[in-house]
Amino acid sequence: MNKNIVTYEPNNSLKKGYFSIFGEIFNELIKNRWLTYQLFKRDLFAIYKQSFIGFFWVFIIPIISVGTFIVLNRAGIFIIGDINVPYPIYAILGLAFWQLFSTGLVASSNSLVKAGPMITKINFSKKSLVFASTGQSIVSFLIQFILVLILFIFYGFKPNIMILLIPLFIIPLFLFTLGFGFILSILNGIMRDIGNILAILMTFLMFLTPILYAKPTNGLLASITNYNPIYYLISVPREIILMGTISEWKGYIISGIRSIIVFIVCLIIFHLTETRITERI
Amino acid sequence: MDDKIAIKVEHINKKYCKSLKRSMIYGIEDIGKNMVGLNANSGKLRKNEFWAIDDVSFEVKKGETLGIIGANGSGKTTLLKMLNGIFWPDKGKITIRGKVGALIQIGAGFHPLLTGRENIYINAAILGMTKKEVDKRFDDIIEFADIGDFLDTPVKFYSSGMFVRLGFAVAVHCDPDILLVDEVLAVGDEGFQNKCFNKIGELKKNGTTTILVSHNMHIISTFTEKIIFLNNGNAKYFISVAEGIKEYTKLFNEKKDLGIEKICTGNDKIKFHDININNRIFFPGDFFSISMEYDSIIDYDEADIDIAILSSNELAIYFQATNRAYNKIINLKNGKHILDVKIEDIRINNATVKIAIAIWAKNRSELLFWWRIPVEFNGVAYSTGKNFLKVLYKVK
């Protein structure tokens, strides 16, 4: 009988060497595709199960949040800056991208803690858990995107044909989210402070990033924005849809490369440390 | 590694931390070291840490069933979790050959709001089954779980028994080469428990290696061939199951005070002074006798004499009767007399018990005497269980 042999000993990955890690991670992800999908389905269904309006909650939350900003804008509290498109379109589109990042990051950083009782009882791929948790942010992104399409019709706005390339252009944003999600989920597993800080920090970060307003041309905020990686990852896809042009290629490419590096490094760190998390969670 | 060995455990250690804050600090320290590729030096204890598993080694051959016994907190579940790869050893090495199925807590992956059907798929995926495998085994799982109409009901409305049924059904149908079972079946009713053990037996026949953790010595002695007895993280390995169980039972008996409890030895009218028992250590089938010398100034006619044999924790009663059960009237006359009580042919096997004797005045109006005497019954070789009965064999 030639069955696969598994060994457990301290610092296992270190002994095997860094290069075999890539193969290991890749195989694990491929092998657990169905598990990832099942975990995603579980989270998604469970949220809307015990509620009367059920799935419609997914629509209601973004409508209300955008509605708030439209009201604030009409009241003149918000200085939006120079945009060439109807504000609701600009705002909802920006929010859709932002929420892909923020809900994705919050969900993934809580994924291990939430599944705590499960991961201390069953041995399964914890990477799948993190992956699956970001799935929900994709669903809510898609739904918000539908909202945007409705707004296009309502305002008679014709988006650029480049909109079809959006799935490609949001990859860096998604990798960036996942990468930090991996690291934060481990840290949150050990100290819950991470999750609490993150929830507060997200609101602050959203106002710091030009999502609901145009990029300021001068001042402190303008220089911060220049170094804000999320800004490029969101503003470029939005610009493509609304204008069909990219004015900040350089920023986008640098942020994109950074996202890929973040994702790979964080995934490796996660792989090296995930065996230690169950005993501390 | 030898082809026939399914599990090989070599000098493994596992440490836990008693303090939450320190556990956080150590966690960050260890993870930080692993991140940059340093050895976390896990083989040493830091402040507030202790070994939950201390230098345990054993081997399990393919198709064998191993029992793990021990008191609460002796490290049984930790050991099982390490075999499953949930916890990694801090020292030593575990080698596992084949697919592991673990029943550490049944239904751990169930989501309460999802239906049984939905949960079967999710739980199976978590336990490592592929979609194809689940589709193929789905009907078997439902049939085994036998929960009827509840299949499409959210599992939060399940009884704890149904929950276990579904969980076990999924777990055993993932065709493990090695099955780890923690004390999980206690919730199911008798019919289902039998079904589970039949299934474990069936898997065993097909070459599945099983590791069973239980406090139920009946289950252990029925199903296992070898035993690991864990005590404070240390392991003792027994090739004879009966020996292992004996060691385990001793653990609880040794802790008990062997002194006689004298709750009442008389009152101002009657005094029991000289009490003699025939022995403190017995073998199954022996008799127990006690003679009580008393001095009374009045007649206590129609006294009640209660005799009982209790387990050492006083929860189980092996035997209990009063003299009425034997249609015997006892009159304790005034003066100096001796009351003899003899229990014949006691068939208790391998247990420390208490023999309780109480004497009441007529209609239980007054307690005159109350003693509890701990005695020990030795075990018969090749026999487990709490009784050793006379069995006749004949070939016709």
What features would you highlight for this structure?
heterodimer, A: about 280 residues, mainly alpha, 13 helices, about 75% helix, globular, B: about 400 residues, alpha/beta, Rossmann fold, Coagulation Factor XIII, Chain A, domain 1, 6-stranded mixed beta sheet, about 35% strand, elongated
Write the layout of secondary structure elements.
The complex is a heterodimer of chains A (281) and B (396).
Chain A: E1 5-8, H1 12-16, H2 18-31, H3 33-49, H4 57-74, H5 87-114, H6 116-119, H7 126-155, H8 166-169, H9 171-190, H10 193-208, H11 220-226, H12 229-242, H13 249-277
Helix pairs in contact in A: 3-7, 4-5, 4-7, 5-7, 5-9, 5-10, 5-12, 7-9, 9-13, 12-13
Chain B: E1 5-17, H1 20-35, E2 49-61, E3 65-70, H2 76-84, E4 91-97, E5 100-103, H3 116-126, H4 131-145, H5 160-172, E6 178-181, H6 190-205, E7 209-213, H7 217-223, E8 226-231, E9 234-238, H8 241-255, E10 261-264, E11 270-277, E12 281-282, E13 288-296, E14 300-311, E15 317-322, E16 330-332, E17 335-343, E18 351-360, E19 367-377
Parallel strand pairs in B: 3-7, 3-8, 5-6, 6-7, 12-19
Antiparallel strand pairs in B: 1-2, 1-4, 8-9, 10-19, 11-13, 13-17, 14-15, 14-16, 14-18, 18-19
Helix pairs in contact in B: 3-4, 3-5, 4-5
Biggest interface, chains and residues, is: A-B, 45 and 55 residues
* Strand residues, percent of chain B: 25-35%
**Mean of pLDDT of chain B:** 86
Cα-based radius of gyration of chain B, to the nearest Å: 28 Å
- Could you say what the CATH topology of the largest domain in chain B is called? Rossmann fold
Q: How many domains is the backbone of chain A divided into?
A: 1
From the N-terminal CA to the C-terminal CA of chain A, the straight-line distance is 37 Å
The CATH class of the largest domain in chain B turns out to be Alpha Beta
Query: How many DSSP-defined strands of chain A?
Result: 1
Summarize the amount of helix of chain B as a percent range: 25-40%
Oligomer description: heterodimer
Number of helices of chain A: 13
The Cα radius of gyration of chain A reads 21 Å
In terms of structural class, how would the helical and strand content of chain A be classed?
mainly alpha
